[in-house]
Design a protein that fits this description.
By secondary structure, the chain is mostly beta strands. The protein folds into 4 domains: 82 residues, membrane protein fhac (Ubiquitin-like (UB roll), Roll), CATH 3.10.20; 76 residues, Roll (Ubiquitin-like (UB roll)); 74 residues, Ubiquitin-like (UB roll), CATH 3.10.20.310; 196 residues, Beta Barrel (Porin). It has 7 helices and 25 strands. A hairpin with a 4-residue loop joins strand 2 and strand 3. The longest helix is centred in the first third of the chain and has 22 residues.
Length: 597
């Protein structure tokens, strides 16, 4: 009997636990499908939404309603108004309509903005080294403008930066705002404390073990006995970091060891990078198939910042070995010199190419984002296994070319860009006074544009065009120097190099004019490391400029998958051949590493 009673108690206990577990349900997630404003005249709805976390859900980006976050959003909304001069702004009504069945929520917020408070006067106090006319040029706020606190803080930072760039490292700027609430007028006083102006006493480099001190000093934009300019310290820090020699670089002023209170020592704290590199890369691509790359580098040869390296490449279309040397300061000047010597073999669709040669480049960076370079190319090429019916008049091509290239590049990330512009213009001449078996001229231009459409969505576009023409003793331009297009990094609806002139057997023979337009690519994360892309490519290659017909332009929209891995972006793209011609497929699929452009 006791056993039966015990079992009954256990059953009741288990039943109670089950009932409690069923009663404790997970909170229902309510998707925000609409959030609208009423009464807002000064600011648009999109601008107000940017101040809030709670906002309407978008495509592939659902937003859920949480009461505590929403209440914080309301405070942020009012704070935004008050920071922009609407000191009387208030929320007079709000409605949160919950649809429990559909698990959705709609929100309406009614705002009373009130009258804006305008700036009626701006004054400077305490400035002695700089007159009022000089400093007022730095003031972004103007009389009659709304009282915008962000502009006041921006003005404060601009004045502080101006002082710091003239040796006043301890200067202070304190805004004082006086408000006449009845008249809706504000008066802004900028209180300045200048303190001492400092000059440079000594430059102290800390942390060097391999690199010679002169390598560091030549990158600096300042020297002893100059007035300290804080912007020069930051630019010098950036220049040192961009040499690639150092893991970290910090430049900061400190009290002078001499005890002079009007001078500062500049401390440069450095942690050096490893000078030896051994890299092995294995991968797969739709064109190269299985591929490997082995690199051996010394990036700081005997502490001089010179770089030497050896690279081997092996895949289904390219096998080769290359030795390289880099001198970042050629003949003691900030001109970079690169020398590359290589032996390569290429298996292209219409021919095989055996190549032996080198390239010498001298270039210099200007204005941080621009550079110019002169390139001399010395190559002995031999064409083999010609698969085109247009047999070239010679199978050897000994090229001697000279090329001038200018580049402007302000992209935020060269591997996975989200904003910025890339512009390149190059002109190359082969033969003539340079000797060689071939004589031609070539022009190549590239333009890339990137911008954020939202926090997660990136718009990208690219244009590439090229023109070339033979002259002198050349009867034709070698197959390996002509333009080709089609493939994973150009027009993605077509196989590799398949767009352009073909022979009677539909083998690619290349052309002398190229136009490739990646008109639009929209990139957006989907889930964690996965992202998606929609793109529209167009273009073609023509035998010459005179044979161009814009009706020949091939178009290829498509979509892609991106996987953000530790080794880079893995890209899967499928492009559609909208108007396939006889013998062509309706599209092409590619697997690649890195973005298309």
């Amino acid at each position: 009997m006791k056993t039966i009673v015990c079992k009954i108690h256990i059953l009741f206990f288990i039943g109670a636990l089950c009932t409690t577990a069923m009663a404790i349900e997970k909170p229902v997630k309510l998707k925000v499908i609409d959030l609208s404003f009423e009464g807002n005249a000064a600011f648009s709805e999109p601008k107000l939404l940017r101040t809030m976390i709670t906002r309407p859900s978008g495509f592939l980006s659902p937003v859920y309603y949480y009461e505590n976050i929403y209440n914080d959003d309301l405070n942020s909304l009012l704070s935004f108004y008050r920071r922009n001069g609407y000191l009387e702004a208030r929320i007079i009504d709000q409605r949160v309509e919950i649809d429990s069945l559909r698990r959705q929520v709609q929100i309406q917020i009614k705002i009373e903005e009130g009258q804006v408070t305008n700036v009626d006067g701006i004054s400077l106090f305490g400035n002695q080294h700089f007159n009022e006319t000089q400093l007022m040029k730095l003031v972004k706020l103007k009389i009659g403008d709304p009282l915008q606190h962000d502009k006041i803080q921006d003005t404060r930072l601009r004045i502080l930066t101006h002082y710091a760039n003239n040796g006043f490292l301890d200067a202070e700027v304190s805004p004082e705002i006086k408000i006449n609430y009845e008249a809706h007028r504000a008066y802004v006083d900028l209180m300045i404390v200048e303190r001492a102006q400092f000059t440079i006493d000594q430059i102290v480099i800390i942390g060097l073990e391999k690199t010679k001190p002169g390598i560091v000093r030549r990158e600096l934009l300042f020297k002893p006995d100059q007035i300290i300019k804080y912007s020069q310290l930051l630019q010098s820090q950036r220049k040192l970091y961009l040499t690639g020699l150092f893991q970290s670089v910090f430049i900061h002023p400190k009290p002078a060891a001499s005890g002079d209170t009007t001078r500062k020592d500049i401390a440069i704290m450095i942690k050096e990078n490893y000078t030896g590199e051994f890299n092995v890369t294995l991968g797969y691509g739709s064109i190269e198939k299985l591929r490997s790359r082995i690199e051996i580098f010394n990036t700081n040869l005997k502490g001089t910042a010179r770089k030497i390296g050896l690279t081997t490449t092996l895949n289904f279309i390219h096998q080769g070995i290359e030795a390289s040397f880099t001198e970042p300061w050629f003949l003691g000047k900030p001109w970079r010199f690169d020398a590359n010597f290589r032996r390569s073999f290429f298996d292209e669709p219409g021919y095989d190419l055996d190549q032996l040669g080198g390239k010498f480049t001298i270039g210099r960076t200007f204005f941080e984002r621009s550079n110019i370079s002169v390139i001399y190319r010395y190559e002995n090429n031999r064409l083999k296994n010609i698969r085109t019916t247009e047999i070239p008049d010679q199978f050897r091509s000994n090229l001697r070319t000279l090329k001038l290239t200018t580049i402007f590049d302000n992209r935020d990330n060269m591997f996975n860009t989200t904003r910025g512009v890339y512009l390149e213009w190059g002109n190359e001449m082969a033969g003539s006074f340079l000797s060689g078996t071939d004589t031609f001229v070539r022009t190549l231009g590239r333009a890339k544009y990137f911008r954020r459409l939202s926090d997660k969505t990136v718009f990208a576009s690219s244009l590439e065009f090229g023109w070339m023409k033979k002259f002198g003793k050349s009867k034709e331009i070698p197959l390996n120097e002509r333009f080709y297009t089609g493939g994973p990094n150009s027009i993605r609806g077509f196989p590799y190099r398949s767009v352009g002139p073909l022979d009677i057997n539909r083998v690619e023979v290349g052309g002398n004019f190229k136009l490739v337009m990646n008109l639009c690519e929209i990139r957006r994360p989907i889930y964690k490391m996965f992202g998606g892309a929609l793109f529209f490519d167009a273009g073609n290659v023509w035998r010459s400029f005179r044979t161009i017909h814009f009706s020949d332009i091939r178009i290829a929209p498509g979509l892609g998958l991106r996987i953000d891995t530790p080794i880079g972006i893995v890209r899967f793209d499928y492009g559609v051949n909208v108007f396939p011609r006889p013998g062509e497929s309706v599209g092409a699929f590619f697997v690649s590493i890195g973005q298309a452009f």
